[in-house]
Design goal:
Blueprint (H helix, E strand, L loop, with lengths): L1 H13 L10 E3 L16 E4 L4 H12 L3 E6 L5 H12 L4 E6 L8 H5 L4 E4 L13 H21 L4 E5 L31 H19 L7 E7 L1 E3 L9 H10 L10 E6 H13 L7 E4 L2 E4 H12 L13 H7 L4 H9 L9 H5 L8 H14 L16
Parallel strand pairs: 2-3, 2-5, 3-4, 5-6, 6-7, 7-10, 8-9
Antiparallel strand pairs: 1-4, 9-11
Helix pairs in contact: 1-11, 2-8, 5-6, 7-13, 9-13, 10-11
């Protein structure tokens, strides 16, 4: 029973991936030479800047020499602020950090002020399944609308890019690859009715609706990025679902693994997509699926096993029995969701990512390995006595 509880806890995390304006903290540019940047971008606001994806976006922007303003919920939290300041110290861009909270609409006016572009990555995530879906959906929708209203009031914002998810397109389909024309249907039940997935769906839909409702004089350009399950090296020490899942796999936290699949994408491609969506004229008004390929949970474990087993880590390759999951689904919500997606491989059409944004996805299998090495090197996963480090060619 302990093994099954561990399995269900892991899947419950996977199926719900996470993820007042005060004084500013400014980090000046380092000595690196700046990469190409768009001179039409004066200042970029990145919301939720300390997050796994957002910090990678901030790093890429700073590397290209942009002036970046990042929001965090508290400037007094060194775990959130110090890694971002460290990024700024070794890149040619300039970083300013301010406090803002999705649940406090009044904080966004000053955060947005003076920005020409906004990359909205912040989204509330429930660490426990809420009794009422509105506990998750309402803050996600209201937070997104608060940011958009602040952009309208500022009058300086040219384009907003919102981080959505493949969850707003669909999460368990087998008849064809899903495209940007698809939308999740919560009436199907199962994973598509999970509060987190509904929150991503509704936040994106309400954002498009808000933009369409604006008078022409108030309108600004808008597009959304829809990444798959994000993996890849972490540029700062922060918590994220994908980091937690890879850690669980590496330390053998799941003796039995589920027969479920996800579409994966490298965080570096996700960061690149946000910047392309910010700068490319043809990106305005569109949705973009940012994905590489679908891998089963066992594929992921096997990839990590082959690279790290002889270095003292113990990913399991044993599949959980389907019959037990079916029985447990009668009274356990996580088991019920797992049972619905058991053996289902959902695929997504990433042709717009390639043809419009010009991004050829990195191999997510290498991204998994890079991620695990970064977690070991940063101390998120304890370094084994047998650890040899990255292989050199």
């Amino acid at each position: 029973m302990r093994v099954l509880r561990s399995l269900l806890a892991s899947v419950d995390i996977i199926l719900k991936p996470r993820s007042f304006v005060g004084p500013a903290v400014v980090s000046r540019r380092g000595n690196s030479s700046a990469a190409t940047k768009d001179e039409n971008v004066s200042r970029v606001l990145v919301t939720g800047a300390s997050g796994y994806v957002a910090s990678c976006i901030v790093n890429e922007l700073l590397t290209k020499g942009y002036t970046v303003r990042g929001t965090v919920r508290s400037l007094s939290n060194p775990n959130k602020v110090d890694p971002l300041k460290s990024l700024a110290e070794r890149t040619p861009g300039t970083l300013e950090l301010v406090e803002a909270d999705l649940l406090s609409p009044e904080t966004w006016k000053s955060a947005v002020e003076g920005c020409s572009h906004v990359l909205h990555t912040a989204s509330p995530f429930p660490f426990e399944q809420p009794k009422n879906a509105e506990e998750v959906v309402r803050p996600a929708v209201d937070g997104t609308l608060s940011v958009l209203r602040a952009c309208k009031e500022a009058g300086t914002v040219k384009r907003v890019v919102i981080t959505s998810s493949v969850a707003s397109v669909g999460v368990y389909h087998t008849t064809r690859p899903l495209t940007e024309e698809d939308w999740t249907d919560p009436s199907r039940g199962g994973p598509e009715a999970e509060p987190y997935i509904i929150s991503k769906l509704m936040a994106e839909k309400e954002a498009f609706k808000y933009i369409e409702s604006l008078d022409d004089k108030d309108k600004f350009e808008f597009c959304t990025v829809l990444p798959g399950f994000v993996i890849g090296p972490s540029v700062a020490n922060q918590a994220a679902t994908s980091l937690d899942i890879v850690k669980r796999i590496m330390v053998g936290g799941d003796p039995l693994i589920p027969n479920i699949a996800f579409t994966w994408v490298d965080v570096r491609d996700v960061a690149d997509a946000h910047i392309k969506c910010m700068t490319l004229k043809q990106a305005a008004g569109q949705r973009f699926l940012i994905t590489d390929k679908s891998l089963t949970y066992r594929d992921v474990c096997k990839q990590l096993y082959d690279e790290f087993h002889d270095q003292g880590y113990s990913p399991s390759l044993r599949l959980a029995p389907r019959l037990v999951i079916r029985l447990m689904s009668l009274f356990d919500n996580a088991a019920r969701s797992m049972n619905l997606v058991w053996g289902v491989v959902t695929t997504y059409d990433n042709s717009k990512m390639k043809n419009v944004l010009g991004i050829q996805p990195r191999d997510c299998r290498q991204g998994l390995i890079d991620m695990a090495y970064s977690l070991i090197e940063n101390g998120y996963i304890e370094k084994s006595p047998k650890f040899k480090g990255r292989k050199t060619s």
